Known about the structure:
- By secondary structure, the protein is an all-alpha fold.
- It is built from 2 helices and no strands.
- The chain has helices at about 15-30, 35-50.
- The chain is elongated and about 60 Å long.
- The model has no long low-confidence stretch (mean pLDDT about 90).
Amino acid sequence: MAIAIKTVPVLEDSIADEFNSNAKAAMAKKSSIKFSKQIAVSAKILAKAKI
């Protein structure tokens, strides 16, 4: 039994421009996660275990 091949939707014109501007804005708002507290706790555990 054959499965029909579906077309891939493509953004065009103003919708594509809006998508790109929203993607750039989302990338600009992206922040990194700080793991300094977790690193300090793990260092204490490893020091206690003498590893």
